[in-house]
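A student in our group prepared the protein record below, which I am reviewing. Thanks in advance; the entry in question is below.
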Amino acid sequence: MREGTPAPAQPRHDILPAPPAPPQALVDALRTCATANLADGLPQHVKVLLGLGPRHATAALLCGPALTVRVPAGDNLLAQHAIDLARPGDVIVIDGAAGMERALVGEAMSRWAHARGIAGFVVDGAVRDLDHLRQGPLPVYARCVSPRGPTRSGGGELYGEVTAGGAVVHAGDLVVGDLDGVVCVPQAQAPAAIDACLQLMARERETFDAIARGTLSRDWVVKALGGGAAG
C-alpha cells in the first residue's frame, strides 16, 4: 500500500440487543405440532419459509427461538459469531441473500453449534459437507448445497429483521421445522397457533379412525364439484 493511501474500510456489522428468551413451556408445546398443521391451522399468522429444505436425514424436529443473522451473500463471519453468542436452544436463521455459490454452514460449524446446545440452522443460502449433515444430530435447512467455502470479510447484522424463504423473521420468533419444511410463528401468536394446530390434529384423528373403520364419508368432494360427478 502506498504511503498516504487509506486502508480499505471494514464492512459494517451491527449487533442489536438479544430479545428475551421465550417461556420454555411455549417451546415445548410448539414441539408437539407438525409444520403442516401449524401452517393450515392459523395461516394468517404462521409464516412458511419456502424453498428451504431439510439437509439432515433424520426426523429430528427443529423448534426454538430465532437468532437472526443477515450476511452478505457467501460471507459467514457474522454467522460464525452468532454461534458464540447463541443461547442453548436457539435456532440460527441466516439471511444469506439466497446466495448459491458459497456455503455458509458446513461440518465444522455444525459440530460447534451442536456442542453449544444450539437447536439447528435455517439458511437462506448454501451449505456443504452434506454427508456429515445427513448423519449428524443437528437439523439444518438450506436453499441449496455448494462445495465452495465462504468468505469471511464480515458485514451484516445480528438480532435484526431478516428474510428467509421469502418470509420476514424477527429475532425471538419461534421456528419449527420437520421433514416437510420450516415455519415461523411470532411469539405473540404462538398460543393461538398451538390451539389451532391441536384442534386440527383432533379432526385428523377422527378422519384417520373413519378410514380405518371404512366409514369415511366423501360427500364433501361431490358437493365441492357442484353436486355431482361428471358422467
